[in-house]
């Protein structure tokens, strides 16, 4: 009942709340959240700690702050004595519901939310304790939850009294730094469920503005306190902020809000507060909620390239861009940014080639606008390596592939086939570049030393070309690989700078070599005498071409025994050796190959998990979703042949479904946007029903003859999709 009864009330609130701006004039612009710290694109390490993403994983701690931020803690004012308990409040609610007399409940709410002091008096666990640490907020979370859960079930005058009290608190004149009691009040007010209602957004916006304008030291406290909130309520807070941003961007009823020109600070404030919750979420492993829960799909419908260019052009100026906070941008939106950035680079490179040709008075050739790769199937890897090495300058042009001796024209299908066959051959165990770990079902770099690492560079370039040309690959690398690929996300100018080196943990090793990781975990938890029972040193052994070689994990490691005291260091050095040092040259070549194609500031927006999705797509097939999005040409979805087709396909094993997807599209992976992004089409083939189905992989099109019965369709379809290598022209 809040929205209907409170609307007129909030119109007067809006007039009243505008005085907040006048109250804040004296504070100065330095605390305004419209003047946000924007990441310096040239130096990734300058990013503000509050924008935690793939480039910043360090643990936020008040102890890591510079000395100037460690201001003396101001004394807390004495709090009123409030003795009401959770049970007392619940009893008052029951009496009010049964009797209809809400006076006691009304008095409690109006008093509790009348000021920040009263909020602390009611909800602080112990009013005599300071609770000045980041680990304990001192908030009685159970009481807060009970009070808020009951709030929306109270009469409107009770709910209005709470909002009036919040306005009083926000209008308070602030002198000097905030106390921890103030931060507690902000933390409690953020959880108010009334802020899900658009009629409260003017008040909510000013609350967010004040929180966004807090000092970095205060933000650290809020971040650490937020990670203690339960998962359900944490997600509600995040969803409320996302909804606020969405409705301010695209209001269902514009008249409910002030004109956008007068509240340009709403969205920056909300986004910065959302960044606090993202930072809290990143501090815990496993995280409280999935990183995808911070995506705001509404942003898919704004001018993303304008956001991207603002971020690129204005650097550390005070112009807001969502790209400063990439956690809020969905993977689908990031894919659009990367694709358009790639297209612009392709056009620029092609235009330059054309200008160079004309300036030399040579006749332009359309082939010069593409990266033309010509290979023999029998010499696939060597030919591909030679072609990409010779045409380094053309890597950012549109890719076109030709198989020698075949008449197929590359409209996209030959490119997909080339990627698939090349990846299959390079990752074969006999090839020796990568080791397949059966326990984790993933590949990892072989640590064997060799004279030439150019083939690793080729694999990196292939991954880059796949992202650049929107092709999904069937590559099974562990998440750690993509973390290393973004270390750093922009290739350093100094060639002596190490690349592909990141902080690795035992969890990373579990994803690759679970058995070894389990053994190291047992070592860490062993209760006996490690030195006497394990008799190990800081030295590891590896087999290379039948020869056992030893490596010291630290200087004179072969003479340093592993003990109970130094075993953590041993495990960390061992993991670092396996995932960083032993494969450094291989991975560095791979890193430079990938970035030779994908060098773009757009990579700064990505998490490692998102790079993996862009490269590999999703392995999860939903054929029902494909059925819903399929288009038809010459058929209706109710035709008997089509009904036979889907009955057969939905009954296929996963292996056959993947073969069908590969037959029709050239890849058995699902793109970022899901099955709907495939634009899959089934066309009627007027040929004899004795013929097998035909696919045009360039257009994700399946040509299906009108088979007379389900048995015949299934037989012909299985034969077709199981013998689907090679191209020709009709």
Description:
This protein is of the alpha/beta class and 730 residues long. 46% of the residues lie in helices and 6% in strands. The protein has helices spanning 2-17, 19-24, 86-99, 103-112, 116-123, 141-151, 156-170, 180-189, 201-212, 216-226, 231-249, 266-282, 304-314, 331-359, 380-390, 413-426, 454-468, 479-485, 506-510, 514-525, 530-534, 567-579, 584-598, 608-616, 623-629, 640-650, 654-665, 710-722, and strands at residues 370-375, 398-403, 434-437, 442-445, 539-544, 547-552, 631-633, 681-684, 694-696, 701-704. Strands 7-8-10-9 form a four-stranded mixed beta sheet, covered by helices on one side. α5 (116-123) crosses α8 (180-189) and α7 runs parallel beside α9 (201-212). The chain is globular and about 90 Å long. The model is unreliable at 1-71 (pLDDT under 50).
Number of strands: 10
Shape: globular
Question: What fraction, in percent, of the residue positions are helical?
Answer: 40-55%
Rounded to the nearest angstrom, the distance between the terminal CA atoms is 68 Å
Largest sheet: 4 strands, mixed
Radius of gyration, in angstroms, nearest whole number? 31 Å
Global structural class: alpha/beta
Overall pLDDT: 84
The count of helical stretches stands at: 28
Spatial strand order of the main sheet: 7-8-10-9
Strand residue content: 5-15%
Low-confidence stretches: 1-71
Function: E3 ubiquitin-protein ligase which accepts ubiquitin from an E2 ubiquitin-conjugating enzyme in the form of a thioester and then directly transfers the ubiquitin to targeted substrates.
InterPro entries: E3A/B/C-like, HECT_dom, Hect_E3_ubiquitin_ligase
Pathway: Protein modification; protein ubiquitination
EC number: 2.3.2.26
